[in-house]
Amino acid sequence: MKYASLRYGLSALRCLIALCMGGLVLSALPVQARAAAGGSAGSAHAADMAARMQPAEQQAVLQARPIGGGEGATQAAADGLLAWPGVARLGLPALRMPDFSSPARPADEGGHPMLPWLALAATWDPDLARRAGGARARAEWEQGRAVVRVGGIDLLPSGRLQAGEDQVLAGTMAGMIGAGLLSGHVLPVFGSVAGDEQARADGAVPGRTAPVPAAWLADGSLLGVAMALEVAHGGALLCGGLAVCQTVTGLGAMVHDAWHFPGMVMATPGGLGPARPDDASLLPGALGTGVDMEQVSSREGGHDMFGAPLRQAVRDGAVRPAQLQAMGMHVLASFYMAGSLDHPPAFTPAHAAASPPVADTLVSDVEAEGAVLLQNENRVLPFDPALGPVLVLVRAPMRHAADLLADELRHAGLGVSVVVAADGANAPGTLPPATAQAARTLVLSGTDADNRMISTLADLGGHVVVVLTGDDPDRQMPWLDMVDSVVQAWAWRDAHARPLAALLSGQQEFSGHLPVTLTGGFYPPGMVDADYRAFERAHVAPLFPFGYGLSARGHLTLSDLHVVREGTHLNASFSVTNPDGTAVRAIPQLYVSPSSDQAAPRRLAAWRSIMVAPGHTLRLTLPVSLRLLAQWNAPAANWAVAAGDYAFSLGFSSVMLVRHADVRLPAMHLPAALDMAAD
């Protein structure tokens, strides 16, 4: 089984990849084989093609612009599609892509899931992430699009993105989505936009206006980006999302010089600044950001940095031809890594009917593995048919979902009825009469507006199960001590009904773990970030911690943790025992605390998704990247591991840590270059 990391030198990232990818071994081989060619050979091909371009062609490939006239162009423009022009003289085809300044389409549009979403991150399952990327690749290919944005990670820090709040987890999942996209010759562009970010309940956001050196972000947000590129074995980066491209200074040097990444950095429309066609004064700053390709939207009125201002600068001799050639080489390298130039999708006319999506259980599988059991007092779950019927209580907006779930629960052998509460149901007399007689009530709740209804219901004295059908990490739960069971089921999709019924009825075991901290809307004073490291620094326990998740039927025990150094990586070994009579799937998580002279909190180092048979003990060994113990050494452009003792902790969440081990390390330096070749 494998997972994710970032390889600095020969072992760092490869070791964490070997850890994080669960059961994904054979399924990744075609991607790795193709990516190897797209990495080294593709870079050489990109350099050759860039050198053969004429000056006007070198400038043209630095932009993706609104689609011009022709069949389907009007609809494409309405859909926010842009076209990269290619170079017909050299046989390089034009390619289409979305305008990345806007959030991704709704999850169920066209029958294809949006990527990523928190339910997928909650599975901690890279194989599912790769399947999701493959499904998205097929959908994009069908529509003639060769480039897709993968959110969940970004250049600037944010603990509120859809792939989760930890860079190791988010980088792995985003990278495996990218691997699935690359397998379908679709280029993944890694980066988020503001619309992807989950707003905090108190409205606070991290400061993102002052310039910050890339070196300061190397072991934080940029770690997730670098991991995604290496896990995917290709792709491109996006800036201009959570902040304009000038905010992260030295990005080009980090990406191309330190990481040795051959591909491109893209900018969203307007991300390089509000240039005017007759004003090239801002162009030097735009070129200094490290951006290689600029998206131009029709909303910008045709004003852009790499258009008229760049053409004027080239005519004046202010921009060297070698710089344009290097930027074009980066653009081509990303497309060659994806195979998009050799296998371009056909442009789809606007009137062409999309073919029905291939039958796939992806969305159901994500819910089945990603739903998180947060609480289960009195072992109310799974529902026992012998204990009588279950009442499903919802407000009107959730009636359709309740009917679907009730049908699936009936198929599982339960007696189920559905009642709808009127608006303002916050006292015993205003709840439907059936709730007073119900011994077991299941509430589907999407927002905090249901809280008074849930509290009123709990006061009636029956067993209450609350299923949360939203993605809000700040969901308030004032009724938590009054109800029996709580399930985090994420944003509702109709395909969730069957797997959720299987979990509630015991036909399938809960195995999801939180990819974000559930705060309950409470933050200690002065806290800007809301991830698990921020809570640890503040010495405050959150409502439910990162990595948390229960089993309804059994539990595993962890023992005998040992950590040893082997060359340029660490091996952590431990035993997992299932003392119960039911097979249990769980996710043991390994966290590391840097040495005392480093001002850094505990962080996720590795994990393993494991199924343990009843009465069995397994001995596991997880490789750990030394990069996760290092600090960025800016003068040498490498990673420095300080000599000292490092503490490792093992458990089932970021705070439920039951086994500990220390390892003493000498001072070491690790190269920063990404490993873009196959394992």
UniProtKB/TrEMBL annotation:
Keywords: Hydrolase. GO terms for biological process: carbohydrate metabolic process. One of its GO terms (molecular function) is hydrolase activity, hydrolyzing O-glycosyl compounds. The keyword Transmembrane does not apply. Gene3D superfamilies: Glycoside hydrolase family 3 C-terminal domain (3.40.50.1700), Glycoside hydrolase, family 3, N-terminal domain (3.20.20.300), Immunoglobulins (2.60.40.10). InterPro entries: Cellulose_deg_GH3, Fn3-like, GH, Glyco_hydro_3_C, Glyco_hydro_3_C_sf, Glyco_hydro_3_N_sf, Ig-like_fold. It comes from the Bacteria. Belongs to the glycosyl hydrolase 3 family. This is Glycoside hydrolase family 3 protein.
